[in-house]
Amino acid sequence: MSDAADADIAVDVPVAEILRGVLPCSVRTTWISGSLVEGFGNTGSDIDVFVAVDAIDPNWSMTRRVTTHAVDVRIIGKRRVDYEYWPVSSIFAVAAKLADLRLDDPATNILDALEPVEVEFIHRLKVGLPLSDRESYADVRRCFDFERFRRYLVQNAIQYVDDAFDDTVGMLESGDLDCAVLRARDVVELSIDALLYHRDVTNDKAKYRATKLRQLRSLDLDGEEYRMAFWRFESEIPHSTHGRQNYARDALRFSSAVIEAIQREQQC
Amino acid sequence: MLIPANDGAHSSDVLPHKAFYVRKRRSGESTYLIYLTSIVRIAPLSEAIWDACDGRTSIPAIAGVIASRYSELDPDLLAALVVQNIECFRDAGLLESVDASSRRV
After folding, report:
1. Which of A117, A131, A163, B42 lies in disulfide reach of B46, CB 3.0 to 4.6 Å?
2. Contact assessment for residue A110 and residue A155, using Cβ atoms and an 8 Å cutoff
3. How far apart are the first and last CA of chain A?
4. CB distance from B41 to chain A under 8 Å?
5. What is the pLDDT of residues B45-74, one digit of tens each?
6. Does ipTM surpass 0.90 in this model?
7. Nearest-by-Cβ selection for B36 from A169, A252, A263
């Protein structure tokens, strides 16, 4: 099956119609990505079209311009379609930034070293489907070390876990149980995020956490156990003082089990 | 006191348990136990002992686990190291202890 046919199945707008919306310019390659392509989408989801170009013409009328790229939002049929125009210089810069990250270096803090827009770009390139010039699309993909990207996301997520973990301990020690119990729930969520990244689920949208957890069942022997624990922590916050203390303690223990399992596997 | 000094007879009643507020983390080649701003770097043997402190395993049983894992080393020496490590963990406030006798109905 061709890539365009794959894309046709992934979204309910014909590929030919999507390609007609690309501005006439020096296009290197085009790919489609986002929640619909990943199978997470719904009737309200937009379609993300990425266009690698030599340069962005300042005279183009764009919905939004940021330092790395420009976005042109269109409506096709009942779908919103976001055309993201990325100059190849921006793409190479993101790839170089990923390659230069000092992972596994205790002396280097990599917290949020990649901007959210860069994380999203890399992930969407990773899961995308080419719409035009498949060879150029493969060339763009080859610029990125996706395994390195996965490792960065895991390390970054664990730093978030650690921050929330220590917050919870401090809140418990100072007797602020209301804050502690909610922060403990954050610890659980962030630990699950770290696990998902570790299993190469690199979509970073919290809104799809439940869907990603369903995927985890097929990726992790303990996936179902983690999923059940996650829902228990999400839905069963006790009201009593004793119950809240136990909830926070159990959440921290759950987090430790998850993160230690990740780090044990990393060592292997 | 978690471990009565020089009194191995009582150690089987103590079930060392990692405190919920301690997180174990790897960074580079090293492993650390972290409790807020307190950080303890631990060697692989200490890590194995720490991992065995699950609140269900007595100190003699932990020594047995460690002895089977480090079968090339003298079991008596390992048993002493287990006690020594657990005392260090306890003194650093990293353990919760559970008295096995309190669990008996």
Report:
1. B42
2. yes
3. 38
4. no
5. 999 999 999 999 999 999 999 999 999 999
6. no
7. A169
